[in-house]
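lol ok so funny story. i was supposed to be doing the assay writeup but got distracted and ended up predicting the structure for this chain instead. priorities right. anyway since i did it might as well share w the group, maybe its usefull for someone
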Amino acid sequence: MTEQDQLLSRIQSAAKDVLDKSRPYFTRFLTEAEQMKISAMKFSSDLVTGFYGGKGNEDAVRRCFGIVPSFYVNDEGDFPALFPIKAITFSFRRCDEVTHREVLGTLMGLGLERDTIGDICITEGKAAVFVTEKPAELIMDSVLKIGRVGVSCAYGVDFELPKQQYEELSYSVASLRLDNLVRNMANCSRGTACDRYLKPQLVQLNGEVCDNPSKAIKEGDIITIRGKGKFLLSEIGAAGRKGNTHIKVKKYK
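and the output, tada:
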């Protein structure tokens, strides 16, 4: 049984436990691939389920999954408030620079596991990180520097988190096979798409390596091509006169 299969099995068991004991269940932070697998699961109508990456982080990539009895939730704001997620902001001089890798490295250096750490958002003079509740106090007490930059810590986020930016692209494809989309996204021939990207396993579909050129792609799928970027298939349009399908793609900036 793969790690993802084990995760899905745990969630199925947890859902039953929530129904039987009315005890909420929350995962740690999940990868995009894990979130896609969970999204396909079916749950009882007596449960409220969903993903959450932290307050104000609507574009969160890494999110936790929660299951609660329906009577726990009276309005839209109740469910997110139940998640055991803490936000911590590191403040530093505006003339200094802190990178995502340095923040992650500092936190991992404390002995934290990767799935206890969610998104890291950086702007001028500040870096916010979302973490599970348990390691939050350790971070607050221990982090005085990120890289060579001195920082101060505070709970919460006191700046507007940057929004995910996209470049809007349109293509006309012969079919919705993976090799056809990679061909357009990488601006190369279909053969090159297979030989240069798919066969060497440089393509991910929804966070998992996929080297199957005939894999059918659907709306909402995310394709990552190493060296070319990350793409979201945002819309599948009507077929054109020559039988090609018009699609719209968002390329992550």
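Residues 166-252 form a domain with the Structural Genomics Hypothetical 15.5 Kd Protein In mrcA-pckA Intergenic Region; Chain A fold (CATH 3.10.290.10). The mean pLDDT is 94.
back to the writeup now i swear
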